[in-house]
Design a protein that fits this description.
The protein is of the alpha+beta class. It contains nine helices and five strands; from the N terminus they run H-H-H-H-H-H-H-E-E-H-E-H-E-E. It is about 50% helix and about 15% strand.
């Protein structure tokens, strides 16, 4: 009986207005956010067809918050089981990697360039991560590397770990980046100590530390600019 009601609700949508048919006829750009997600998830739940379910998901959480929900958190939403949660996590992860791939080799000119590169990687995280960007002589990114996870302190961030990969990659310079999950971009005393230690180490190794960027929410703090 439930399945019959579900079929009827889907059939209530005229064929030409269903997401798949609209995609085939006009392409992906004409579809709403909910319709695109509906194509990915394919099926709704016992109470809603897939388009209505996706509309409610996006209206409730927004795309940005939906992407931040963990695999377990997604499954607390009615109608989202392990399979759908996996599909949602996979599509956001794929998009993140796509954005990173486009940025590889990007020339860094300003702190904003660093923010644009690292924001998709660090902004949504609920724990601190310390990243190093390796640059060539033209200030283009050769490689990015996560050095540490967890609250930063000088015991965790050792110059040996920070510069080991830079030496291996023959980097001309590096940029330090870490996130503040609280959203507050003001540097802590520990941030200041780590920054000074690594700037000094870079001078000794002739691998210049160009900047240290702190990302919090949609904002950033640049040691160089400040």
């Amino acid at each position: 009986m439930i399945n019959l009601r579900l079929i009827m609700r889907i059939k209530d949508i005229s064929k030409e207005n269903r997401p798949r048919e609209r995609f085939l006829k006009k392409g992906a750009t004409v579809l709403s956010d909910a319709e695109l997600l509906a194509i990915i998830l394919q099926k709704g739940n016992k109470k809603e067809n897939v388009t209505d379910m996706c509309n409610k998901l996006i209206m409730t959480y927004g795309i940005d918050k939906l992407s931040e929900l963990s695999f377990v958190e997604l499954q607390t939403i009615y109608g989202i089981g392990p399979a759908k949660a996996m599909q949602i996590k996979a599509v956001f992860e794929f998009n993140k990697r796509h954005e990173q791939a486009k940025q590889k080799g990007k020339k860094i000119k300003t702190a904003k360039d660093v923010f644009d590169y690292c924001y998709p990687i660090l902004s949504h995280l609920k724990i601190e991560k310390f990243m190093v960007l390796h640059l060539n002589t033209a200030n283009r990114i050769i490689k990015d590397e996560i050095i540490s996870t967890g609250t930063l302190n000088s015991f965790l961030i050792h110059p040996r770990e920070v510069f080991k990969s830079a030496i291996k990659e023959n980097a001309n310079s590096i940029i330090l980046v870490h996130n503040h999950p609280s959203g507050n971009i003001e540097p802590s005393e520990e941030d200041d100590e780590i920054t000074k230690m690594l700037f000094d180490a870079g001078e000794l190794l002739s691998i210049k530390v160009l900047d240290h960027i702190i990302i919090g929410g949609k904002n950033h703090h640049s040691y160089k600019d400040n």
